[in-house]
């Protein structure tokens, strides 16, 4: 089992760092799944038990100049590692102006992702900063927990308003309640609502538009609904705030699928990164 990769381009390094920083805001621990063509950050929370789930997918060729992988076996050419993204983020922070960064799976006192960055130097002698990031190798029998989640059979799919605007609204609402109702319909309308014994506050968004797959009969629920009918889910406001606070990906598209009274499924798409985040509804 071997893995090594190298980033030479500063733009690619900064982009990768932003993705890792986003993951760091969302979870303290996740699975780093390495395959021949893709790098994934996976959080497999049990939605049925109230846990959030995350799936972040990167096309490795758009980030790494060199990328070599030998998985656990010829028929399973991938590696799954449990890692604390904050440790990876800290290591990348020291490498921001590096000439190159090498990442390698090593065996020290325990399995590690070793990150070596060659930094600019005033002398002819190069400075290499090395970080050993402890990881746990996940055995193959557990890999089924870290496969791509299927698209939920949603009732409504809608484009999100500007994330900064949404973040500002949610930050203010957090002072009023621990829970927030997210509701939307197939007419491009979305509401964020707080309802307590003392106060009721609603922020309305209109003309957001609905993704084309909202009209796809194969997706089930959305097709048979009246376009004005709202699908809603009541969620833990801290989990939504955590998602909005962490964003450094600058997506070209941001969408929300709602399974009525069950799940809010948030999707951020960029040219070479996609991030899915599942927040379960609470009673």
From TrEMBL:
Pfam annotation, one family: Hus1
Subcellular location(s) of the protein: Cytoplasm, Cytosol; Nucleus
InterPro entries reported for this sequence: DNA_clamp_sf, HUS1, HUS1/Mec3
Keywords associated with the record: Cytoplasm, DNA damage, Nucleus
One GO-annotated biological process of the protein: telomere maintenance
Keyword Manganese found: no
ATP-binding recorded as keyword: no
Domain of life: Eukaryota
GO CC annotation: checkpoint clamp complex; cytosol; nucleolus; site of double-strand break
Assembly behavior: Component of the toroidal 9-1-1 (RAD9-RAD1-HUS1) complex, composed of RAD9A, RAD1 and HUS1. The 9-1-1 complex associates with LIG1, POLB, FEN1, RAD17, HDAC1, RPA1 and RPA2. The 9-1-1 complex associates with the RAD17-RFC complex. HUS1 interacts with POLB, HDAC1, FEN1, PCNA and RAD9B. HUS1 does not interact with RAD17. Interacts with DNAJC7.
Similarity section: Belongs to the HUS1 family.
Function field: Component of the 9-1-1 cell-cycle checkpoint response complex that plays a major role in DNA repair. The 9-1-1 complex is recruited to DNA lesion upon damage by the RAD17-replication factor C (RFC) clamp loader complex. Acts then as a sliding clamp platform on DNA for several proteins involved in long-patch base excision repair (LP-BER).
Name by which UniProt lists this protein: Checkpoint protein
């Amino acid at each position: 089992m071997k893995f090594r990769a190298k980033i030479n381009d500063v733009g690619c390094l900064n982009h990768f760092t932003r993705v890792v920083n986003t993951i760091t805001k969302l979870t303290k621990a996740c699975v780093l799944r390495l395959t021949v063509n893709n790098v994934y950050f996976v959080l497999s929370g049990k939605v049925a038990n109230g846990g959030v789930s995350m799936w972040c997918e990167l096309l490795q060729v758009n980030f790494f100049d060199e990328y070599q992988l030998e998985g656990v076996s010829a028929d399973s050419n991938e590696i799954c590692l449990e890692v604390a993204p904050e440790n990876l983020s800290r290591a990348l922070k020291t490498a921001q102006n590096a000439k190159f960064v090498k990442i390698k799976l090593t065996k020290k006192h325990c399995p590690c992702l070793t990150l070596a960055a060659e930094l600019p130097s005033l002398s002819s002698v190069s400075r290499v900063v090395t970080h050993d990031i402890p990881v746990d190798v996940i055995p193959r029998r557990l890999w089924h927990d870290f496969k791509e989640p299927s698209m939920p059979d949603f009732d409504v799919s809608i484009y999100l308003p500007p994330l900064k605007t949404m973040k500002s609204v949610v930050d203010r609402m957090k002072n009023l309640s621990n829970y927030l109702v997210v509701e939307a319909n197939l007419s491009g309308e979305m509401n964020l609502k707080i309802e307590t014994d003392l106060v009721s506050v609603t922020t309305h968004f209109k003309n957001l538009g609905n993704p084309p797959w909202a009209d796809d009969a194969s997706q089930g629920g959305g097709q048979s609904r009246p376009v004005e009918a709202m699908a809603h889910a009541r969620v833990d406001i801290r989990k939504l705030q955590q998602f909005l606070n962490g964003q450094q990906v600058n997506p070209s598209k941001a969408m929300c699928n709602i399974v009525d009274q069950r799940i809010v499924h948030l999707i951020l798409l960029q040219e070479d990164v996609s991030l899915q985040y599942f927040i379960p509804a609470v009673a």
